[in-house]
Amino acid sequence: MGGLNDIIKKQQEALNKPEEDKIEEVEQLVGFIVGEEEFAVPILSIQEIIKPIEWTRVPFVPDYVLGVFNLRGNVLPLIDLRKKFHAPSAEIDENTRFIVMKIKGEDVAFVIDKLTSAIRIPKKNILPPPETYSNEDDIIAGVGRLDDGRIITILKVDNLIKREEIVPERD
Amino acid sequence: MDDLQELLEDFLVEAFEMIEEMDQDLVELENNPDDLELLNKIFRVAHTIKGSGSFLNFDKLTHLTHHMEAVLDKARKGELKITPEIMDVILESVDAMKAILEYIRDHGDDSSPDVDIEPIVKKLDAIVNGNQQSQTQKEEKKEAPKTVGGINLDEINPDNLDELDLSSLSPEELDQVLEKLVEDMNTSPEEEGIEEVEIVEENKEDTGEKKEENKEDKKEENKEIEKKESETLPSKKTSTEVTKEEQKKDLQKKIISTKEQTIRVDVKRLDQLMNLIGELVLAKNRLIKIYNDVEERYEGEKFLEELNQVVSSISIVTTDLQIAVMKTRMLPIGKVFNKFPRLVRDLSRELGKKVRLIIEGEDTELDKSIIEEIGDPLVHMIRNAIDHGIEPPEERRKLGKPEEGTIWLRAYNEGNMIVIEIKDDGRGMDPEKLKKKAIEKGIITPQEAENMSDKEAFMLIFKPGFSTADKVTSVSGRGVGMDVVKTNIEKLNGIIEVDSVPGKGTTFKLKIPLTLAIIQALLVASQEDLFAVPLSNVIETVRIVEEDIYTIEGRSVLKLRDEVLPLVNMADIFNIEKVLMPEKYLYVVILGLGATKIGLIVDRFIGQEEIVIKSLGEFLKGLPGIAGATIRGDGRVTLIVDVASLMKLAKETHNKKLVTDSLKEVKKKKEKPSDYTVMIVDDSPMDRKIMRQALEELGVNIIEAKDGLEALNLLKQNDIDAMLIDIEMPRMDGYTLAQEIRKYNKYRKLPLIAVTSRATKADRVRGVEVGMNEYITKPYTKEYLQNVIRRNLKL
Questions:
Q1: What is Dmax (Cα atoms) for chain B?
Q2: How confident is the prediction for chain A on average, in pLDDT?
Q3: Do B623 and A75 touch (CB under 8 A)?
Q4: pLDDT (0 to 100) of residue A77
Q5: For residue B208, is pLDDT > 50?
Q6: Best mutation site among B285, B620, B648 for testing chain A: the one with the most A CBs within 10 Å?
Q7: Chosen from A54, A63, A68, A71 to mutate, greatest number of chain B CBs within 10 A
Q8: Contacting residues of B for A168, CB less than 8 Å apart
């Protein structure tokens, strides 16, 4: 009986191990372009990706908050990542997308120029942001080097927008 | 444990309700001290609370109620006359009961260290002690209370049987109670028993005929009494048993019927339901919009009729559903009004004034959340009316008024609003006196006072730090009251109106929206942006010309009939970029909130619509001037204005910017001809050249297009100030182009000038129809064309 148990144990270990390794070592990301740079966010933080639709301007907000729009009956804020990253602004074209992400339990949409690809990157290839990067507001989680030599900036989704920066404190 | 908790909650809800009612009844009783029916009702309430209280082991509460009950019992038996002094003590004990109940609600026990009932109990005892006999009787009972399910067995006797709250007893407990009853009757040749029977008889003689509803009970009592008097014990026993059976049946009936009538529902569930209905209303609006589009496209098709039927029926059902759910959240305003008879009584006694309160419309219903907010402001206003409004009796007599002052508290519906009116026939307010006071206190300047109408002067009482009472009393005049009223009413998006005639009295009108979740709104456009303004705050809309705007002390105001209103451009409040040229007429929304009114310049009125308020989410909520957003029929998001916050912003803008300057802003940007751009649309290069030459002499910039489609694209990409349009062109002709351009709000005022050789009257009419401003027939002189352009660009 002991022998059988051992075999079962080994089997289970064999089953579990590779998967654990995967979860441990590989990050799944979605890459996109804003301005001249390629960025990425964890795939699990993305709710959905939609084509641009009409939005409504909102007063008294920083310029990177474009306004709000209706996504199936919910009113979502729309953030322009170009403006947020101080890149020159561009017209909306057929590649432009809204990425809807959950930030602190709330759905927020971000305008990006173009989607690139889904990315699987080993964790060891992700380095902390270099000192030279301007990482104000702790937006960057790290920098990833892909097999084809591309360099992507991985964003900390939770820090992308902050309420206190958007709505001025009321007196 | 849970059962007990549930029981406790039920007890509290019931007790609070009963006490509220009792408060009112007591005040009424003071006016009609001989109303036995009322006395009995009050006695029953006290008895029920005592019973349930003792069942839940609230000794302090039971102790207090017991003594109070003793007083009421004596009054009920005609041994005690209720004087105002005695009433003070009774009311005091009711307050103590309330305080204890509140403590129970918050802490779960009745230790309530803040409430000292001993002095009240002593006072109650003193009243009862007027008759020694009955006091000792009560005393004895108190020593050994034997209780079954909240009912003190020693207290039970045939005459208070119908006051017992038997509904809370289990069948076993009920049996015990009834056994005790039978036992009582068997041992009847006791002095005490006979005494009680005699009292019941008296009671019956007094009121028996008047009371229709209690007839049956009385009959039973009658029977019992007869039996007792005939002193035949065995037969009496059987009769009691019969009564017992009937009583049981009655009771069961009662329990069943109350169970069927109401259920308690968590407010959260209703809120959830309301949210779902909100979604449904949005979907309905959307459906209607789609139907209208489809109708245009497929005019005359058969399926339209069917679609129309479905859309209308969904729309009707949705509206009914919405009203039905809204109604489940509604409570009669009587819930708030009920506490005022007591308040008025206490205050008038305290201030030595005679005041009568007349309440009307207490059945008018309001949303629960609003009911909760409305109480405090009303208390303040009624206090004020008694303290400041109603004169002391001597003064009133001298003035030839009846000694007793009257306060009317009235509620009624007016459209989507409920109006609460508080009116007194007191001394009224003198606008000049108010102005003087306001100047003294530095609230307004003498110049401002001069320009003020009487109505505006009355509104001064709502300014913080304003108080007209010469002496400060504990009742009012602390200079906070009316300010609080204003804040509270504003929170509810309500409006306050004041009217007063010196010597005759004052009327306050509070207008409050019925509900807060789904509202009627006026949709307006400021430049290109749409906003929804809650209709409850829109007093009126007016069309004015620039000449109607006056500047007083560096601020823009609008004179509207006898009022002078601050005037602000909505685009300035929200920093909206100005792209539209101002027209001859300006559109103004007169907004009212609390005691304030302003005029808000918008660029267009879109119309009235029912909207559902949605939050802007964690990141955007709380933006100044914005209450939320709504999704309209076309799926677009429209921002909803937060009137209270907008008023604040408007005040700031009003101090900073003149409307007349703001209106010039668009014009200002363009001064020289080179600031302007004119587009020439013509398929003939020759014709374009002729026009170009004429325009170059003017010094304006020129953009050329070969046909309508190209022109439309160029228009969107460039800032164009006027267009010269040929009619006959390939791809898109001039009429269609004009039609397309006029579809955009932004280009509504863009000068479109037709330049064509088609000169018939029909052509001209067509041109006007599609939105052309001018019609130039080829050939024309250079000067003529230049003049037309100059005129249209206002060069």
A1: 130
A2: 83
A3: no
A4: 94
A5: no
A6: B620
A7: A68
A8: 624
Helix residue spans in A113-167 (DSSP H): 163-166
Q: State the nearest Cα–Cα gap between B623 and chain A, in angstroms.
A: 6
Render pLDDT for B485-506 as a digit per residue (tens, 0 to 9).
887 887 787 888 888 888 888 9
| CA-based nearest residue to A79, from A68, A93, A70 | A68
Pairwise CA distance, residues A156 & A140, whole Å:
5
**pLDDT bracket for residue B139 (50, 70, 90):** very low
Sheet strands side by side (includes B518-526): B604-612, B518-526, B529-534, B637-641, B626-631
Q: Name the minimum distance, in Å, from the CA of A100 to any CA of chain B.
A: 14
Residues of A in contact with B637 (CB under 8 A): 55-56, 67-70, 75
For chain A, domains (ranges, CATH) are 27-166 (2.40.50.180)
Q: Render pLDDT for B334-361 as a digit per residue (tens, 0 to 9).
A: 888 888 888 888 888 888 888 999 999 8
Nearest CA to A87 among A132, A142, A32? Answer: A32
Q: Which of A47-51, B478-482, B626-630 has the lowest mean pLDDT?
A: B478-482
Q: Sort out which chain A residues have CB atoms less than 8 A from B279's CB and list them.
A: 73
- In angstroms, what CA-CA distances link A2 with A10, A11, A16, B199? 12, 14, 21, 93
Q: In which element (H, E) is residue B429 found?
A: none
Give per-residue pLDDT as tens, B446-472.
888 887 888 888 888 888 777 655 444
Q: What number of residues does chain B have?
A: 795
Token digits of residue A164: 């206190």
Position B474 scores a pLDDT of 47
Q: Percent of chain B having pLDDT more than 70?
A: 80
DSSP code at position B757: S
Q: How far is A114 from chain B (nearest CA, A)?
A: 23
CA-to-CA separations, A109 to A64, B616, B736, in angstroms, rounded: 12, 13, 38
| DSSP 8-state symbol, B227 | H
Q: How far apart are CA A9 and CA A20, in angstroms?
A: 16
Rg (CA), chain A: 20
**What's the rounded Cα separation, in Å, for the pair B150 and B581?**
79
Which residue type occupies A106?
E
pLDDT over threshold 50, residue B235:
no
In this complex, do B636 and A59 lie within 8 Å of one another by their Cβ atoms?
A: no
- Go through the domains of chain B in sequence order and give each one's CATH number: 1-143 (1.20.120.160), 156-264 (no CATH), 267-328 (1.10.287), 332-508 (3.30.565.10), 518-666 (2.40.50.180), 673-793 (3.40.50.2300)
Q: Which of A54, A57, A75 lies closest to B616 in CB terms? A: A75
d(CA B458, CA B244): 65
Q: Which residues of B are catalytic?
A: 47, 69, 384
Lowest mean pLDDT among A29-38, B41-50, B395-404: B41-50
The token duo for B496 is 């306050």
pLDDT of residue B162 exceeding 50, the answer is yes
Contact present, A107 and A101 (Cβ < 8 Å): yes
Among A55, A69, A167, A170, the residue to mutate for chain B (most B Cβ within 10 A): A167
Nearest CA to CA, how far is A81 from chain B (Å)?
16
Distance CA B346, CA B88 (A): 9
Q: Would you tell me which residues 112-141 of chain B have a C-beta closer than 8 angstroms to some C-beta of chain A? A: none
Q: How far apart are CA B723 and CA B737, in angstroms?
A: 11
Q: pLDDT tens across B556-600, in order?
A: 888 888 888 999 999 889 988 887 777 788 899 999 887 788 999
For chain A, the straight-line distance linking the first and the last C-alpha, in angstroms and rounded, comes to 75
B391-416: pLDDT as tens digits: 888 889 988 889 889 999 999 887 66
Please say if the pLDDT value at position B791 is more than 60.
Answer: yes
